[in-house]
């Protein structure tokens, strides 16, 4: 966020202004001229921002080998290889052109994945609440090359997607989500890797993950910066001065608590309560064990892998987990439902497992 005051205007007297998320390198001195000398400006650091500066690297492979340790590179390559072994994958970037029908299909899938993920967390999401606004906005921005739609497919289904905002040389990681059924494949990291490779190929110099400190941001970024809240108030007005300084104290206290990781503790407690509620509602555990005897097909019911049944929807993330540890194409796996409704069998080329709910 940047801003500018009109030097010919004088309507700030007696007022207080709160401007969120101003970049720390924003040159405020160029905006406060003599016409607004009565304004007092207080800056409060609120969040860290993270980005990857791509300049100085020949290509993605050069960045990847120099930025990550051998162990980290091995893990990321393993996730990538497992995904590509188990599924037919494809990655597309829509930038400057996209068919409206295809856009709506992708955006609908984006919404569905967000709902699935955030419902699992028991939280609301602004994209869902204002989906019509974002649908129209992002479509026009893609056509104007001020945004890109990045989509990862597995067996022709969308499993991870993001919308990035763009300037001439910078790409901003804005809206992103992935299918939580693929939890072991670390799709968030893979999506960043594919997008960053595209950035190198298309001449972008920075890949910005914006505010907030998350594991994926700290792992991929090589530059940090600060976001500030700016509070502007009329220093000659008692009411404005009191209000402005109250806001300063309020946001300083928030930052103090954030520095002490109180927000992380709060999030962990909320997540724990949510998990306990889910467990209480579902009241079920999953037990997986190896079987040594072959499947007696006449005693079980085969479940098609393209089934939309409740049984398969329940089994799908478990099957994805199993073949992550025992790689083979998903389409070659066989799933059976036992005579007892809570027992299933998953058969692969080198494994045979019983799943009991």
TrEMBL record:
<feature type="domain" description="BioF2-like acetyltransferase">
    <location>
        <begin position="71"/>
        <end position="217"/>
    </location>
</feature>
<dbReference type="InterPro" id="IPR038740">
    <property type="entry name" value="BioF2-like_GNAT_dom"/>
</dbReference>
<protein>
    <submittedName>
        <fullName>GNAT family N-acetyltransferase</fullName>
    </submittedName>
</protein>
<dbReference type="Pfam" id="PF13480">
    <property type="entry name" value="Acetyltransf_6"/>
</dbReference>
<dbReference type="InterPro" id="IPR016181">
    <property type="entry name" value="Acyl_CoA_acyltransferase"/>
</dbReference>
């Amino acid at each position: 966020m940047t801003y500018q005051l009109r030097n010919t205007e004088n309507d700030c007297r007696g007022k207080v202004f709160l401007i969120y998320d101003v970049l720390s390198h924003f040159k405020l001195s160029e905006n406060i001229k003599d016409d607004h000398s009565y304004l007092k400006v207080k800056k409060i650091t609120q969040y860290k921002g993270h980005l990857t500066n791509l300049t100085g690297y020949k290509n993605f492979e050069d960045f990847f080998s120099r930025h990550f340790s051998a162990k980290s590179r091995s893990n990321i390559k393993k996730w990538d290889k497992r995904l590509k072994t188990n599924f037919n994958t494809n990655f597309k970037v829509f930038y400057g052109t996209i068919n409206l029908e295809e856009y709506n299909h992708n955006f609908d899938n984006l919404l569905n994945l967000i709902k699935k993920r955030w419902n699992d967390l028991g939280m609301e999401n602004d994209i869902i609440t204002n989906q019509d606004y974002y649908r129209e906005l992002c479509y026009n921005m893609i056509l104007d090359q001020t945004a890109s739609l990045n989509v990862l497919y597995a067996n022709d289904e969308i499993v991870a997607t993001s919308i990035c905002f763009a300037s001439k040389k910078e790409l901003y990681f804005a809206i992103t989500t992935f299918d939580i059924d693929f939890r072991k494949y670390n799709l968030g990291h893979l999506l960043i890797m594919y997008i960053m490779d595209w950035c190198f190929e298309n001449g972008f110099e920075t890949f910005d993950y914006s505010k907030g400190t998350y594991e994926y941001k700290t792992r991929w970024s090589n530059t940090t910066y600060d976001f500030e809240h700016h509070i502007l108030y009329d220093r000659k007005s008692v009411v404005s001065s009191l209000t402005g300084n109250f806001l300063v104290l309020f946001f300083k206290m928030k930052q103090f608590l954030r520095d002490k990781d109180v927000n992380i503790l709060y999030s962990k407690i909320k997540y724990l309560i949510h998990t306990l509620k889910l467990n209480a509602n579902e009241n079920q555990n999953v037990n997986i064990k190896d079987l040594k005897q072959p499947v007696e097909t006449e005693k079980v019911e085969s479940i098609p892998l393209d089934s939309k049944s409740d049984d398969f929807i329940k089994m799908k993330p478990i099957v994805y987990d199993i073949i992550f540890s025992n790689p083979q194409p998903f389409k070659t796996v066989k799933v059976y439902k036992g005579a007892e409704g809570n027992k299933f069998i998953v058969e692969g080329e080198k494994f045979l497992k019983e799943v009991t709910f």
